[in-house]
């Protein structure tokens, strides 16, 4: 929601300042506000489509403003107010900034997956999220570790099998899955390791597309 408002908010404000026809001004403003709300709702329910939905929203907003400006120019003639011209250039500059930011965001890098991708665990299991720092990141991947302790008397093999069923039920399947849709090809993976009767869940955020890699065995 914040990202969409940050992208479209200045477009709306600049449009309100540059428009010369009150009726068109508020119709377009209402459309831009509705477009922002729609995009935020879609991102809430489809978080993987963040980049694509944001890009479409900004593109539609820019085209709408451009069409409305052209309509006003044909109806009212050329622009003579300095403030109006400045707003037009500011809008063009802001769209250029968004384009550059989109290019940077479209180049994925390693990241720390959120612990809630596998938490909470089944009742009776205790999870400890180990602190992460820059030392847990390489050139293409960052790792977050969670140690899991079983119930009293539970064997390590039984604990491992239960944790494996749990992460598979949370949608991990083979262990790796995509983060985004088309523009963001990064992946997040989960791996399991057992040591001294405890299971360690290893979450990794990868720059590369590892969807075909199997990590949950």
Describe the overall structure:
By secondary structure, the protein is an alpha+beta fold. Helices cover 49% and strands 16% of the residues. It has 5 helices and 5 strands. The protein has a 5-stranded antiparallel sheet with strand order 1-2-5-4-3. 24% of the residues are buried. The mean pLDDT is 88.
Count the helices. How many? 5
Strand content: 15-25%
Strand order of the largest sheet: 1-2-5-4-3
- Rounded to the nearest angstrom, the radius of gyration is 24 Å
**Helical content class:** 40-55%
Uncertain regions spanning at least 5 consecutive residues: none
Oligomer: single chain
Cα end-to-end separation: 37 Å
Question: What is the global morphology?
Answer: elongated
List SSEs in N-to-C order: HHHHEEHEEE
The structure class reads: alpha+beta
Extended strand count: 5
Mean pLDDT: 88
**Sheet with the most strands, sense and barrel status:** 5 strands, antiparallel
In short:
It contains five helices and five strands, in the order H-H-H-H-E-E-H-E-E-E.
List keywords for this structure.
single chain, alpha+beta, 5-stranded antiparallel β-sheet, 49% helix
Which helices and strands appear, and what pairs or packs with what?
Blueprint: H1 2-18, H2 22-45, H3 50-76, H4 82-105, E1 126-129, E2 141-149, H5 156-169, E3 176-178, E4 187-195, E5 198-206
Helix pairs in contact: 1-2, 1-3, 1-4, 2-3
